């Protein structure tokens, strides 16, 4: 079997809960992480039909889907055949949960095995529910512990989890991994009134080695610290790992956080459905972008029209396949995000492909303006590098006739407004390729997000969200 050289590689997955790597090893599973990628792919190609057969046999959702596509799970023995497996889209999952409440007919495990229920906030549509099995929860924790080890977190370290513990799976995933790694976990949370300000005191007191949040939250925390004359460098945080939105791989955001906290920023995260969502993650020795830990979740970057994997070096949309989940397994879940992947030597020695600049954003959030594609993160990156930027902005998209226009309202905290406006206009012109109107407003004009930021205000009639 192709997976013989891989530590604890079996289906269904299960891990020795007492295992910890050699303390001097940078790797949790040295073979799995540094093996010849072709050998790893061969093992993955043996696993895929097992997972697909399992989903087909245990869920009406996948049976229906594959019967309709005329697909026999046992025939998925080549990459070409795998590329024909129809993608799953989130709308289908939502519909399945409406038709077969509360968790849809893609659960695959008996109700008695459900261990955790989670849900999304539903800000972008009907909320989705997750029903995660006991075995899966353990495997998720193991995988996240392994990835945290790769980031440089070690047993005994204090891990401060500073994100929502309600309708957000991110915090729970970070916590479960840190617990399995035998860390001291502080499930601090976020979202209740006054918590950000109080976090300053708790961080000073607990001096955590690692900290988890969304990038927006860390920026907010840095701002509150400044207002309250606290120096966040004194918290002694060595590793700040983030998921949930672009930011950790946006150079100006990353620099701002690294400087404010005197720390190392680590990007990670796929989608809540894809938990163990840290399967895309940077490491201690490969700090930029994210590595794709293919033996945990199989990541493809696909053409957004054909859903076929694009060659390394090209851009596309991530499509994810669980290799270890038995509850609500996702097979070729379409993210509708945008990224570029690459296969090159990684500084940490792991032989995984990577997304060298992370996930830029969602296809739907990309602004198409007179033949140019503009990512909201590019605008963020420009503004944050200009001295005096007040920390928040909004991008207003309008339409006059058949032409889209964008205007940026940016906060400024200084005395030379016209200088700032000039710098912002020319910086934006450089990255957008078009003249962009800039309106300068006072610092603190806009609300700060303590979860995921949304800075685009789309005023075009045809794209208005219902
Ligand atoms: N998204 C998530 N992580 C991202 C990252 N590192 N860079 C850019 N965009 C990212 C629980 C985890 O944080 C995953 C999560 O946030 O799940 P959600 O709430 O289902 O949101 C998933 C979306 O967040 C992705 O599709 C990306 O658009 C973004």
UniProtKB/TrEMBL annotation:
Keyword Ligase included in the entry's annotation: yes
Its keywords, alphabetically, are: Ligase
Q: Which residue numbers delimit the AMP-dependent ligase C-terminal domain?
A: 371-460
One GO molecular-function annotation for this sequence? ligase activity
Residue ranges crossing the lipid bilayer per the database entry: none
The beginning of the lineage is: Bacteria, Bacillati, Actinomycetota, Actinomycetes, Pseudonocardiales
Q: Which SUPFAM superfamilies match?
A: Acetyl-CoA synthetase-like
Note one Pfam family from the annotation: AMP-binding_C_2
Q: Which residues form the AMP-dependent synthetase/ligase domain?
A: 120-316
Q: Does the keyword Oxidoreductase apply?
A: no
Q: Which residues form a coiled coil?
A: none
User: By its UniProt entry, which InterPro entries does this protein fall under?
Assistant: AMP-bd_C_sf, AMP-dep_Lig_C, AMP-dep_synth/lig_dom, ANL_N_sf
Protein's recorded name: Phenylacetate-CoA ligase
């Amino acid at each position: 079997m192709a997976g013989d050289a891989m530590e604890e590689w079996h289906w269904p997955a299960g891990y020795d809960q007492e295992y910890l790597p050699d303390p001097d090893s940078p790797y949790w599973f040295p073979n799995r992480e540094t093996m010849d990628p072709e050998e790893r792919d061969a093992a993955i190609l043996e696993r895929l039909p097992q997972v697909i057969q399992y989903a087909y046999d245990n869920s009406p959702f996948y049976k229906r889907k594959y019967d309709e596509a005329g697909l026999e799970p046992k025939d998925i023995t080549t990459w070409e055949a795998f590329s024909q497996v129809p993608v799953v889209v989130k709308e289908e999952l939502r519909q399945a949960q409406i038709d077969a409440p509360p968790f849809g007919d893609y659960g695959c495990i008996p109700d008695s095995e459900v261990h955790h229920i989670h849900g999304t906030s539903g800000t972008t549509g009907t909320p989705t529910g997750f029903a995660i099995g006991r075995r899966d929860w353990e495997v998720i924790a193991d995988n996240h512990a392994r990835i945290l080890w790769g980031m440089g977190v070690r047993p005994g370290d204090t891990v401060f989890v500073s994100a929502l513990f309600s309708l957000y799976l991110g915090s729970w995933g970070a916590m479960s991994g840190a617990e399995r790694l035998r860390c001291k976990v502080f499930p601090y949370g976020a979202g209740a009134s006054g918590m950000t300000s109080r976090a300053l005191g708790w961080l000073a007191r607990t001096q955590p080695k690692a900290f988890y949040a969304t990038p927006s939250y860390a920026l907010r925390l840095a701002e509150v610290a400044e207002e309250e004359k606290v120096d966040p460098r004194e918290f002694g945080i060595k590793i700040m790992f983030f998921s949930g939105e672009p930011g950790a791989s946006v150079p100006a955001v990353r620099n701002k956080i690294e400087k404010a906290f005197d720390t190392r920023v680590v990007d990670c995260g796929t989608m809540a459905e894809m938990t163990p969502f840290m399967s895309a993650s940077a490491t201690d020795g490969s700090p930029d972008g994210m590595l794709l830990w293919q033996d945990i979740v199989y990541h493809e970057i696909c053409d957004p029209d054909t859903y076929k994997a694009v060659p390394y070096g090209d851009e596309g949309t991530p499509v994810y396949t669980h290799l270890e989940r038995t509850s609500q397994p996702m097979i070729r879940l379409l993210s509708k995000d945008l990224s570029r992947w690459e296969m090159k030597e990684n500084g940490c020695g792991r032989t995984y492909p990577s997304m060298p600049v992370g996930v830029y954003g969602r296809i739907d959030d990309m602004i198409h303006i007179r033949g140019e594609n503009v990512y909201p993160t590019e605008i963020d990156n420009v503004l944050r590098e200009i001295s005096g930027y007040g920390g928040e902005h909004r991008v207003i998209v309008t339409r006059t006739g058949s032409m889209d226009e964008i205007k940026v309202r940016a906060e400024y905290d200084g005395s030379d407004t016209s200088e700032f406006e000039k710098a912002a206009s020319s910086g934006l012109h450089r990255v957008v390729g078009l003249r962009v109107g800039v309106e300068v407003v006072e610092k603190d004009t806009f609300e700060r997000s303590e979860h995921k930021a949304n800075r685009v205000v789309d005023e075009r009639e045809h794209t208005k969200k219902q």
